[in-house]
């Protein structure tokens, strides 16, 4: 039980200071994966030393790649695709859906047998969204419920390119198929209903690959070699989101977030908060390794409700839990729709967000594909709440506890280490 004890009975806390946001989880995963496929030494700076990305390192070490984790950088000694060898043990992705799905694409192209397992949460998350197209390409895959759930076994080998229309807007699905396409004969084309994050497309180009991107469709031709490069990982905007919302809804606050990635496919949190009336400014904008970066300055502001849906959803899919908290403090109603993907994240985030915010006194109801939140200026009431082992729930509830009268106890905040190991310390340091 982790105690975020808000002893200020009328919660007169404010948040003031500067936060160093840890490296982007999506980009950190890809730097290890692509460096493992490349020829030469890839140097990764500002790598996210969170549990999910450490799972990726562990899996590729088991596949024979030498990876050296130093204090300020990670070195990946790639020997090209031929450098990957059959693992003597199962590949454990821990809590990481990104590791699981992108790894399946890569090992589908490798001429040996692999078994992928994960934690209890991963064991409930749908993998058929990648195993189905990968089998269409020629990968021999089996697993629970017809390769829907882990443990999943894959014997990779001769793949042929396919043209695939994904039924979901998912960068994990898109990336898995494109990565298998690297090994396939011919060209592989992937399209999706709405554009999802494009870190794979950007980074494969940085590793010397050619891709064709046209709207929501990406194509790649097999047989290309990756060349090692240096990757500087920007701060993770999905982690910054907790401070963007906290700085907006907690009175008399001002927080500066340094070197945060502001990739256009990831900035839904900024466009939504701006629409709600937040006071957020971008400073020192630049582009590093093909990824836009900026300092973000957030100040307290009175928010108003909004509607979040359609093509905006993939650009803020991981930020919807903390946006639900923001909505609880806004004036008027907020509707989140077209977000059924929330039901297959680390938890069913529609159910867990509604359950836990209701305990804190928020007027919120679940819908099939989202939620409806009635904003209020009434303080939240302290309660015993739970993260359900979901890192983004743990961080959202930690911010919520600062707004609640009385004490709030959060069951299991250890899971926050999946993406933001020093989150609690960073939040506590801002408390004034
Ligand atoms: O590609 C990635 O790195 C990710 C994509 C998203 O999942 P989907 O693309 O499956 O929605 C996101 O939820 C996840 O945190 C990371
Ligand atoms: C869903 C997430 O990650 P993953 O799918 O990699 O587990 C997340 O970080 O919120």
Automatic annotation (TrEMBL):
Signal peptide range: none
A GO term, aspect molecular function: 3-phosphoshikimate 1-carboxyvinyltransferase activity
Pathway where this protein functions: Metabolic intermediate biosynthesis; chorismate biosynthesis; chorismate from D-erythrose 4-phosphate and phosphoenolpyruvate: step 6/7
Catalytic activity, EC: 2.5.1.19
GO CC entries: cytoplasm
Residue span(s) of domain Enolpyruvate transferase: 14-427
Keyword check for Cytoplasm: yes
Residues that coordinate or bind 3-phosphoshikimate: 25-26, 30, 170, 172, 318, 345
Enzymatic reactions: 3-phosphoshikimate + phosphoenolpyruvate = 5-O-(1-carboxyvinyl)-3-phosphoshikimate + phosphate
Catalytic residues (UniProt): 318 (proton acceptor)
Compartment(s) of residence: Cytoplasm
Family annotation (Pfam families): EPSP_synthase
Keywords: Amino-acid biosynthesis, Aromatic amino acid biosynthesis, Cytoplasm, Transferase
BP GO terms, sorted: amino acid biosynthetic process; aromatic amino acid family biosynthetic process; chorismate biosynthetic process
Protein residues bound to phosphoenolpyruvate: 25, 97, 125, 172, 349, 392
Summary of the function given for this chain in its UniProt record: Catalyzes the transfer of the enolpyruvyl moiety of phosphoenolpyruvate (PEP) to the 5-hydroxyl of shikimate-3-phosphate (S3P) to produce enolpyruvyl shikimate-3-phosphate and inorganic phosphate.
Family to which the UniProt record says this protein belongs: Belongs to the EPSP synthase family.
Oligomer status and interactors: Monomer.
Name of the featured protein: 3-phosphoshikimate 1-carboxyvinyltransferase
Organism field: Gottfriedia solisilvae
């Amino acid at each position: 039980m982790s105690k975020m004890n808000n002893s200020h009975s009328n919660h007169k806390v404010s948040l003031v200071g500067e936060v160093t946001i840890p490296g982007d989880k999506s980009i950190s995963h890809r730097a290890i994966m692509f460096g493992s496929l490349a020829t030469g030494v890839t140097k990764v700076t500002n790598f996210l030393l969170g549990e999910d990305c450490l799972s990726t390192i562990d899996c590729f070490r088991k596949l024979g790649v030498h990876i050296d984790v130093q204090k300020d950088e990670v070195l990946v000694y790639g020997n090209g695709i031929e450098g990957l060898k059959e693992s003597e043990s199962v590949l454990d992705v821990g809590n990481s859906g990104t590791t699981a799905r992108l790894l399946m694409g890569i090992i589908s192209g490798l001429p040996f047998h692999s078994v992928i397992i994960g934690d209890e949460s991963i064991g409930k998350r749908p993998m058929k969204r990648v195993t189905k197209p990968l089998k269409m390409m020629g990968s021999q895959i089996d697993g629970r419920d017809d390769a829907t759930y882990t443990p999943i076994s894959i014997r990779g080998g001769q793949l042929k390119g396919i043209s695939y229309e994904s039924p979901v807007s998912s960068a994990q699905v898109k990336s898995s198929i494109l990565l298998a396409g690297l090994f396939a004969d011919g060209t592989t084309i992937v399209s999706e209903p709405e554009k999802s994050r494009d870190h794979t497309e950007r980074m494969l180009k940085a590793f010397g690959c050619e891709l064709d991107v046209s709207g929501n469709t990406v194509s790649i031709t097999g047989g290309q070699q990756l060349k090692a490069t240096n990757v500087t990982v920007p701060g993770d905007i999905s982690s910054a989101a907790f401070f963007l919302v906290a700085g907006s809804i907690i009175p008399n606050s001002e927080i500066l977030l340094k070197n945060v990635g502001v990739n256009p496919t990831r900035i839904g949190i900024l466009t939504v908060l701006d629409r709600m009336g937040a006071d957020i400014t971008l400073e020192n904008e630049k582009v590093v390794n093909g990824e836009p970066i900026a300092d973000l300055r957030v100040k307290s502001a009175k928010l108003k409700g909004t509607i979040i849906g359609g093509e905006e959803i993939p650009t803020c899919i991981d930020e919807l839990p903390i946006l639900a908290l923001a909505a609880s403090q806004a004036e008027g109603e907020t509707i989140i729709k077209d977000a059924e993907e929330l039901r297959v994240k680390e938890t069913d985030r529609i159910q867990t967000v509604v359950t836990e915010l209701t305990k804190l006194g928020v007027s919120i109801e679940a819908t099939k594909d989202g939620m409806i939140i009635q904003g209020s200026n009434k303080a939240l009431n302290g309660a015993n709440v739970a993260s359900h082992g979901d890192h983004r729930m743990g961080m959202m509830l930690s911010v919520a506890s600062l707004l609640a009268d009385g004490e709030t106890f959060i069951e299991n905040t250890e899971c926050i280490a999946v993406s933001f190991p020093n989150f609690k310390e960073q939040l506590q340091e801002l408390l004034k």
